[in-house]
Each structure stands twice: as structure tokens, then as C-alpha cells.
What does this fold into?
Amino acid sequence: MAQTYDLTRGKTSSVILKFFFPMFFTNMLQQLYTVADTAIVGKGLGDNALASVGNMSSLTFLIIGFSLGISNGFSVSIAQSYGAGNHEKLKKAIAASVKLSVIVTIILTAISMLFLKPVLVMLRTDESILKDSLIYGYIIFGGLFSTIAYNMCSCILRALGDSKTPFTAIIVSTIINIGLNCFFIFGMKTGVEGVAIATIIAQVVSALICFARLKKIEIIRLSSQDFKADFAMYSELFRNGLPMALMNSITAVGCMVIQYFINGLGVAYTSAYSACSKFINLFMQPACTAGFAMSSFTSQNYGAGQYYRIKEGLKACLGIALVSYVILGSVMFFFPEALAKIMLTGDEQIAIAAQYLPVSGIMLFAVDFLFVFRSGVQAMGRPFIPMISGIVEMAVRIVVTVSFISRTGFITTAYAEVLAWLAALLLNATAFVIYLRSKLEEKRGLNVEVNTAINH
It folds into this structure.
């Protein structure tokens, strides 16, 4: 029988670290093969091809980020049901999640394929990279089913305390992805379409590995009864999933506005920004993973009513984020040019990236802590503050960029990014403290009532 992992028992730091490391290596491998994609494209096809792929990043985040938010939101209900020991509700939550994910996949695929070109034109995509951006985008969005399938399967596994299977899946898919990239670009001499096809194939493999593991878990063996329409369950899933999906999409819209202004500066800036974004995404992964650990740990313990453990989990996850910031923020601050040279070849592009990275590096703690607090709030079934924080992030990015980019140039986008992180962190940290304190006081009051009744 495949194993699930109860995160409501045991020493908090040990439980979280045991859950964290497989997931950390999973996320790092995902980002590393993204960086490898970028490096292979940059070195094998040139900076313009890199700009074509990078130009798609904000639009890709808009679509894929929405689907990931849906999956993460659904997993909150799954983890809470598992933590509460309600296996009947657990199976219904998984069955409903699968049905809704299929519908979301069809809708997102249709929308992204239909509006890809108009959106790229609206973003002032340079004519020299528009064709390649379209080729890459159509293939990636055409294979969106593979991304959503992996996200849904891995989120279910993490909700059940299994962070090892997604790690195994990513090891295999990373090897496949990098191998196919080299084969298509250097062997077959394809363009950006080879990179996109390699990504889809790798994601299909990772989804199949996770699905095979899910089939072996006895407590979630689904029957036709579990798939019957349950509108109360649909409502619960969407209450958690939609705000998280909208938060990601709202953030992506802010990034698309930034992309609009960067594209207006020229292709060199588009290339440099793409490289910087890849490094930020890579270096925030330890804290992002701590956020995922916080989500699963908090969801299960919230479902079990063990609120004091959530506070202990926060300390452990913030500790991971702090260590990550000290190490990786320092690398970004002290070695920006060396980092830029990994992906970029042009002197102008390298110089532009070297301006951006130190600003992000010194303030990386803000987004690192944000992941932990935001995940904790979402896992307590309170997704609306994180959604509002996404709106605030978008507003800060846009206002700062529009107000100052004409005077201070490209570096404005770096300051806009870190100010957006700080604003969102303040909102989510405040909400987390308020929500957890209220549950602890509620639990304390209940214990007093029980003890009074016993003594009488």
C-alpha cells in the first residue's frame, strides 16, 4: 500500500524538514531545468530567441499561474479533510477536484490559444521576436493539459503528506527535458519549438508518475459514487481555489504591464529582464518550498484543530526562508555580472541585468517571508486576504513603474518589484497573526469550558 504522511504528529521541526527537503529538491529541479532551457536557448539560438521565450513568461504565468492557484486551493480542502480523518469527504474532494480541473483545462486552453497573438501585440512585442513567441506560446498552451495534470496530482500528494513522489517525477522529467532540449536544438537544429515540445513531453511523464502513485493509495480509491455531483463540495473547492487562482493572475497582469514597458525599451532589455526573472524564480525556491510545506502542515493541523502546532510550523518555515535569504540574496547582491553571463551573451544585456539583480537580492527576504505567511493564511481557509494582496502587488508595480520609468529607466522595475513584495508581506503577515490568534483564543476558551464542566 502506498503511504500517506500525517503531519499532525511528531516534533514540528523534524516533521517539516522531512517534508520540506524532497519538495525543495523538486522545486529546485523544476527551476534548474527552466534555467537550463534558458541557457540552452540563449547559447544555442541567441539572445533574440531568449527574448522570444522570456517575452512569454508573464503571459504563461497568467494562464499557468491561474491553474496552479486552482490546484493549490483545491488541495487545502483535501489536506483539511485528511487531517480531520474524514476519508469520505476526502474522496469526494479529490473526485470533485478532478472534474473541475478538466473543465478549467478546456476553458484555459481555448482562451490562451485564442488571445495569444492579440495580447503579444498589445504588449508591444518587437517584430523580430513576435513569430518565435507565437510558436512557443501555441505549443505550450496547446499542451496545457500536461501542466495542469501534474499540478493537480502533485498537489493531492502533498496534501496527503507525500513530497517524495513529486520529487521522483521531477528528477525523471528534468533529465528528459534537458536531454530533449539538446537533441532538438543542437541535434535537430530546431528553433524555440523544440524547447516547447521538450517541456510538454517532460510534463506528461511527470504527471504519469504522480498519477501512478495516487492509484496505489487505498484510502483514496475512488468509486463512481464519489464522482456524483456535489454542489456543496464544488462551492467549498472554489471558495479556496478561485481566490488563489485570481491572486496569481492579478500578479501576472502586473508583470505583463511591466513587460509592456520593458519591451518598449528594446530587445536587449527584454532579454536581460528574462534572465533576471529566471534567477529570481530560482533563488526564491527554498522559501517558496517552505511556503508549500507551511500550506500542507497548516492545512492538516487546522483540520485536526491543532492550532498551536501551526505557530510552531511558522517558526520552522520562517527559519528556512531566512537561511535561504542570507545565502542566495548574497549571491545576487555580490555576483550579479557572473550570474548574468550564465544566460546572456551580449555585453549590453549583461550590463542591464547586473543593475537589476543586486536590488532584488538585498530585498529577497520580503518575497521569501511572503511565501510562508501567505501560504499559512490560505491553508487556514482564508484565501481572500492573499487575493487582495495580489491586487496590491499589481497596483504597486504599475504605479511605481508608470511614475518613474521615464526618469530612472530600467532600474525602476526592480524597485517596483521589491516594493510590491513588501506591501504584500505586510498584509499577509498581519492577517496570519490575527487569524491564528483568534483560533488559539477560541481553543483556549473551549478548553476552559470543558475543564469547568468536568470540575462541576
Notes: The chain has 17 helices and no strands. The chain has one domain: 12-455. The first helix runs from residue 12 to 45. The radius of gyration is 22 Å.
